[in-house]
Amino acid sequence: MEQDHPLVREVFPDLVTELITLLEHEGERELAVCAWDLRLVEECGCGDDFCQSFRTAPHPQGRPYGAGHRCVPLLPSRGMLCLDVVDGRIMYVEVLDRLGSSAQLPY
Ligand SMILES: [Zn+2]
């Protein structure tokens, strides 16, 4: 099951650290706890250079999230972070414009 997917905190440790800090700042304590255990299920796949978004839960293909869905926009030190949360579960982490000098491709 989800054990096959890597922990986001092992793939993007800086991102998760900042995410938790921002969530606690917003008073989203439960989401902050969830963020620590998020798994990288699937990359966004849109192919845009500025996009590092990823899914943290299997998405219901072709269907909207439904009534329990809410967006949690955050204000990171750089770029843009926004969570899609459904019934208290983080489904998708939108990460845009965060490619700084430390994250550039090695060529
Ligand atoms: Zn994308």
Explain what the structure shows:
By secondary structure, the chain is an alpha+beta fold. The protein has one domain. The protein is 23% helix and 23% strand. It has 3 helices and 5 strands; from the N terminus they run H-H-H-E-E-E-E-E. It has helices at residues 8-11, 13-25, 29-36; strands spanning 42-43, 54-55, 69-74, 80-86, 89-96. A 5-stranded antiparallel beta sheet has the order 1-2-5-4-3, with helices on one face. Strand 3 and strand 4 form a beta hairpin. Helix 2 packs antiparallel against helix 3. The longest helix has 13 residues, at 13-25. The radius of gyration is 14 Å and the shape is globular. Mean pLDDT is 88; it is low at 101-107. The protein binds zinc ion. Residues 44, 46, 48, 51, 53 line the site of zinc ion.
SSE inventory with pairings:
Blueprint: H1 8-11, H2 13-25, H3 29-36, E1 42-43, E2 54-55, E3 69-74, E4 80-86, E5 89-96
Antiparallel strand pairs: 1-2, 2-5, 3-4, 4-5
Give the count of helical stretches. 3
Measured by DSSP, the beta-strand proportion falls in 15-25%
User: How many domains would you count in the coordinates?
Assistant: 1
Unreliable spans are 101-107
Radius of gyration of CA atoms, rounded to a whole number: 14 Å
Total number of beta strands: 5
Order of helices and strands: HHHEEEEE
Say which molecules are bound, naming each kind only once.
Answer: zinc ion
Largest sheet composition: 5 strands, antiparallel
Class from secondary-structure proportions: alpha+beta
N-C termini distance: 36 Å
Strand order of the main beta sheet, please? 1-2-5-4-3
User: What share of residues is helical?
Assistant: 10-25%
Shape: globular
Mean pLDDT: 88
